[in-house]
Write a sequence for this structure.
């Protein structure tokens, strides 16, 4: 039995040790050293002596024995307390219904739900200073608590969980710091690490100053739905999956974004914004280069490679070239640039390793050519309500979702859905989908190489009409499905009145899986859709070899012999006339 137990024990240790060592290597060093000093026994012992603190009236401050009288000059002090609990539903400090001044200071809190939760207190009575918080569902959460100061706190994610084999990683759901329905807040000198959705979540708050605060590793650094008069100054944002600061979501306005540093992320703008009112965006950097924000600029030329991210809002007659806009959330954002006489020329830029390479919203007269849009973890081009524009000669490869995505359904007005666009002579390869359109009309897709996309090469969704697709090379798309499978067609068309050939020349597209005869079928659940005139690899119609079942060579020889016979007979009749 001993021979069995020992190898089994070693095997368990080995299996456990592998993920632990990998986890340790990915953990930020500072946080890891803090966690390393803890162990399961000390956590359990501490949680017995320090249960969660609940304060639901002014009297409870005295019941708990906190020092102070609750005035502004002599607030109650909740300080130097350690609260550790491995219970799944454990919380730290909860305060509601109070009118006295208090400070939560120098506390260490390691729980699973709320570390510090403050709800519905008198304005200007709370300060949260210099606390260390680990791995909470919410780190610091305030609601209906205007005038609160949140200063010099560290909210991190890593902790020892209720497992016998050591550290595990628990993801908070909302934010390191969450503020709702509260005004006149100051968030100063905090470190917010890995808050999953956001480092700081400001919801329905006004007049909030976020200063010298660092956010790292969450999906967003800061999100600001339904909030106004927000200032973000001298902050640092790093490694946020979707963006450092999300502007314009849910009607946020009067924003000041100054002197911030973005590393491997940048600013993004939600597609559902109604209007973007900015007080100031200046002196920010992205990956060590300038963040270029331009509002209402005309006759603008940006051809020096000095920008890490570029955003245009209500601009016209702009040329952007030779920029490297990589790893900055969205490389180039164009919003409401729809002037009739103001072309936008975007050429010879790199827009890679972002969420979207480029995001176009309500823009017209755009020439987007000779750009590289590769390895973005959503779309190469995300186009919302673009019209009279050309997307040509671009290299669009290895994007996790779509190479080119036209999404008119997200437009502000459905009448402004994308239309009259040209997608011409691009290489669209190795994306999840090549081109995907819905709520898009009158768009031409021609002379592109569309190859080795996991899904359909071109997919036309609902409410998309009068589009034409011709002279493209469709090679080995939807390659993960066997021939004849419903998902095995190279292309898909869900809407009526689209043509998969040029009806002026009766020439269609080249299909690598076409059998060489007859039309090529397009997958559709709305009826039968065909490319009636498939082309060969040279984008030419294959010359017919038979007519009505007769071999052409036989017909040619027969016609030649008949012609010779007629000529011979005519000559004979002429000779007879002379004799």
């Amino acid at each position: 039995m001993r021979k069995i137990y020992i190898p089994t024990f070693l095997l368990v240790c080995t299996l456990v040790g592998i993920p632990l060592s990998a986890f340790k290597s990915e953990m930020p060093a500072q946080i890891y050293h803090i966690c390393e000093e803890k162990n399961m026994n000390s956590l359990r012992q501490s949680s017995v002596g320090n249960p969660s603190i609940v304060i639901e009236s002014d009297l409870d401050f005295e019941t708990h024995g906190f020092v102070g009288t609750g005035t502004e000059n002599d607030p109650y002090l909740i300080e130097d307390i350690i609260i550790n609990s491995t219970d799944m539903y454990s919380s730290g400090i909860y305060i509601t219904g109070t009118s006295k001044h208090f400070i939560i200071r120098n506390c260490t809190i390691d729980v699973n739900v709320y570390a510090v939760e403050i709800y519905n207190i008198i304005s200007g009575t709370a300060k949260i200073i210099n606390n260390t918080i680990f791995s909470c569902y919410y780190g610091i959460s305030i609601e209906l608590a205007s005038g609160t100061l949140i200063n010099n706190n560290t909210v991190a994610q890593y902790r020892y969980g209720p497992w016998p084999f050591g550290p595990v990683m628990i993801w908070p759901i909302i934010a390191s710091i969450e503020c709702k329905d509260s005004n006149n807040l100051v968030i100063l000198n905090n470190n917010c690490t890995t808050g999953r959705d956001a480092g700081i979540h400001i919801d329905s708050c006004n007049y909030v100053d976020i200063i010298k605060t660092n956010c790292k590793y969450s999906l967003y650094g800061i999100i600001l739905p339904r909030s106004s008069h927000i200032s973000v100054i001298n902050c640092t944002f790093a490694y946020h999956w979707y963006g450092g600061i999300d502007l314009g979501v849910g009607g946020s306005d009067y924003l000041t974004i100054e002197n911030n540093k973005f590393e491997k992320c940048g600013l993004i703008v939600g597609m559902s914004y109604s209007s973007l009112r900015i007080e100031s965006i200046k002196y920010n950097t992205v990956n060590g280069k300038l963040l270029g924000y331009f509002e209402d600029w005309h006759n603008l030329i940006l051809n020096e490679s000095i920008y890490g991210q570029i955003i245009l809002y209500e601009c016209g007659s702009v040329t952007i070239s030779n920029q490297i806009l990589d790893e900055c959330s969205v490389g180039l954002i164009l919003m409401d640039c729809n002037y009739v006489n103001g072309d936008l020329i975007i050429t010879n830029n790199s827009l890679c390793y972002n969420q979207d390479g480029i995001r176009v919203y309500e823009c017209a007269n755009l020439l987007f050519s000779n750009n590289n849009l590769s390895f973005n973890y959503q779309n190469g081009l995300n186009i919302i309500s673009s019209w009279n524009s050309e997307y040509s000669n671009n290299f669009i490869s290895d994007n996790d979702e779509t190479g080119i995505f036209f999404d008119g359904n997200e437009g502000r007005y459905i009448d402004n859905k994308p239309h009259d666009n040209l997608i011409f002579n691009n290489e669209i390869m190795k994306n999840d989908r090549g081109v995907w359109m819905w709520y898009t009309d009158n768009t031409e897709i021609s002379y592109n190489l569309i190859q080795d996309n996991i899904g359909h090469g071109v997919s036309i969704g609902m409410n998309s009409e009068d589009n034409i697709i011709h002279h493209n090379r469709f090679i080995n798309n939807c390659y993960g499905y066997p021939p004849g499978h419903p998902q095995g067609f190279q292309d898909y068309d869900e809407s009526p009145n689209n043509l998969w050939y040029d009806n002026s020349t009766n020439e269609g597209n080249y299909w690598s899986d076409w059998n060489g005869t007859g039309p090529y079928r397009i997958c559709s659940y709305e009826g039968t859709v065909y490319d009636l005139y498939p082309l060969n690899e040279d984008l030419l119609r294959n010359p017919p070899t038979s007519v009505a079942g007769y071999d052409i060579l036989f017909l040619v020889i027969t016609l030649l012999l008949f012609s010779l016979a007629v000529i011979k007979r005519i000559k004979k009749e002429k000779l007879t006339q002379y004799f």
Notes: The chain has a mean pLDDT of 82.
